[in-house]
Amino acid sequence: AAALFDSGALAGLRLVITAGPTREALDPVRYLSNHSSGKMGYALARAAAEAGAVTTLVSGPVHLDTPAHVRRVDVESARDMLDACQALVADCDIFIACAAVADYRPATVREQKIKKGGEHSSLKLIRNPDIVAAIANGTPRPFTVGFAAETQDVVDYARDKLQRKNLDLIVANDVSKADLGFASDENEVTAIWRDGASQLPRATKHNLARELVALIAERHASAGN
Ligand code: CTP
Ligand code: CA
Predict the structure, then answer these.
(1) N or C: which end of the chain has fewer CB within 10 A?
(2) CB neighbour list of residue 14: distance below 8 Å, 6 or more residues apart
(3) Using CA atoms in the order 140, 143, 149, 154, what is the torsion angle rounded to 10 degrees?
(4) Is 187 a catalytic site residue?
(5) Cβ atoms 197, 155 nearer than 8 A
(6) Backbone dihedral region of 101: left (phi > 0), alpha (psi from -120 to 50 degrees) or beta?
(7) pTM score, two decimals?
(8) Region (Phosphopantothenate--cysteine ligase): which ranges (predicted)?
């Protein structure tokens, strides 16, 4: 097995992968979050480690075992995830943002449990930092890969995110297909970069992760990083 790791497509490279949802606290007992299972990010971390990369997962709260030979840093909020990632990218060749980061968080976190009042209530939300954009526009800058979960015009929206966030590669995911994505064990995606694209047909997340790792290794090498 050691020989396999030494000769893998990512041998000698350091990877950081975000995975899972974030949790944005409202008060000591409540939070905003989403249904991300973390499966795709964990499958990628496993495939990256198998390909020889020194792999770190920055993970929101999920019910998954840490893959073998992967270091795991647990976080809750988007801001915690950003801090953890910024500390890690100083020694990182490839950054993959697979987490379903909450776009907004409650404007204030109440110190005490919020008590109910009248018939209606509203929440004030503020924007969270964009983690992958911050990494892609920082220094040092690793080869940066994002994901795009879309329900329509999947490739157009993904290409727009690739450019807007200054990414090297984006993996577009049609989450309108009810039996795929999020909680599913299978997925199908389109990988897009500045002057090319590749469609990866429906497969288990584990097999898809292996194909994505091979593609990322190839794009990283040809980008001359
Ligand atoms: N992402 C991130 N930090 C955020 C929001 C998103 O790092 N605060 C990353 C995700 O991990 C993913 C990519 O950005 O790699 C795209 O996430 P997505 O939710 O599809 O895009 P957004 O830019 O948030 O746009 P929208 O939700 O409005 O489509
Ligand atoms: Ca979003």
Answers:
(1) N
(2) 53, 54, 55, 56, 91, 92, 93, 94
(3) 130
(4) no
(5) yes
(6) beta
(7) 0.95
(8) 15-225
